[in-house]
Amino acid sequence: MSLFFWIHTTIVPIFDDKKTPVEFLLISNDITERKEAEEKLFNQYNELETTNEELDNFVYSVSHDLRAPLTSILGVLNVVADEVIGEDVKKYLSYIRASVDKLDNTVRDIIDYSRNSRTQVRFKKIKINRALNKALSGLTHLENFEKVKIIREFDQSDSIITDEYRLILILKNLLANSIKFCKLKSKNPYVKISFFKSNGKYALTVEDNGVGIEDEKIPYIFNQFYKATENTHGTGLGLYITKLAVKRLKGDIKVISKQRRGSTFKVTIPVGKK
Ligand SMILES: Nc1ncnc2c1ncn2[C@@H]1O[C@H](COP(=O)(O)OP(=O)(O)O)[C@@H](O)[C@H]1O
Ligand SMILES: [Mg+2]
């Protein structure tokens, strides 16, 4: 048994006829058990936070280390693809390439996921156009990149105060989908990016006239690993990570989509405080 114990005391004054306090009633409860439980919980929370942080850092380093050899393999595959003759070998090489691409996409998504969860939100003023260009520069490898017209419905000078890394991450994922899921048979596949500010909030929309999403699948598209289309090389993590990034900016993301017509993703985020 410990020598010390915690008590919780309530003191109630007792008044006479003239409203003068004449006595005090003291009620004490031994709350040692509660205090010890609280302390244990606090320590466990701290330990959990440290483990979580260590795990995040570990995931981040491992994913970075994994990308280096993948990039080398992809480089060698590019060179070899031009050298080899023989349809069979070309076919097998294309299978290897597809698998390595898929692995590379997964690793990139894990890096984005981990960076979004482990780094602090830092607000700064950025031109929308600049953020958009940065997002697009990471998408030039996409098969349909050249075929989809990028329409900018905002002023060149429009700027936004938010976290730059997360803004680019959100744009990159939404644009990648609009480009990947464009309707190739359509005469003018496009993705339209618009931006406006009202009531202390920014609204960013990414609209395409692509293949759209079936009504019954829409509720699931933000879930991790969910793919509404089978023939995609994606991981099904893009919109999940996008939603988490929007959440870190204390914003909201919504979608309206019609099959064979197209999709519109609308992101609303509060104006950041510098
Ligand atoms: N712009 C879009 N047009 C059509 N379908 C989309 C669009 N964006 C997302 N989707 C659907 O939502 C699913 C989930 O998207 P995402 O999480 O980015 O996964 P991924 O791109 O890896 O397949 C996609 O597989 C696709 O079926
Ligand atoms: Mg995607």
The fourth-level CATH homologous superfamily of the largest domain is: Histidine kinase-like ATPase, C-terminal domain
- Number of helical regions: 5
Shape: elongated
Task: Examine the coordinates and then state which fold CATH places here, giving the name of the CATH topology of the largest domain.
Answer: Heat Shock Protein 90
How many structural domains can be distinguished in the coordinates? 2
Order of helices and strands: EEHHEHEEHEEHEE
Distance between the termini: 53 Å
User: How many strand units?
Assistant: 9
CATH architecture of the largest domain: 2-Layer Sandwich
Bound molecules: adenosine-5'-diphosphate, magnesium ion
Could you name the ranges where pLDDT drops below 50 across 5 or more consecutive residues? none
Assign a percent range to the helix content. Answer: 40-55%
CATH class designation of the largest domain:
Alpha Beta
User: What is the overall pLDDT average?
Assistant: 93
What's the Cα radius of gyration?
28 Å
In short:
With 274 residues, the chain is α+β, with helices and mostly antiparallel strands.
Fold and architecture overview:
With 274 residues, this protein is of the alpha+beta class. The chain has helices at 32-83, 87-118, 128-137, 164-180, 238-248; strands spanning 7-15, 21-30, 123-127, 149-153, 159-163, 190-198, 201-208, 252-258, 262-270. It has two domains: 34-118, Helix Hairpins; 123-270, Histidine kinase-like ATPase, C-terminal domain (Heat Shock Protein 90, 2-Layer Sandwich). The protein contains five helices and nine strands; from the N terminus they run ββααβαββαββαββ. It has a five-stranded mixed beta sheet with strand order 4-6-7-9-8, covered by helices on one side. The mean pLDDT is 93. The structure holds adenosine-5'-diphosphate and magnesium ion. Adenosine-5'-diphosphate binds at residues 173, 177-178, 181, 208, 210-213, 221, 226-229, 232, 234-240, 263.
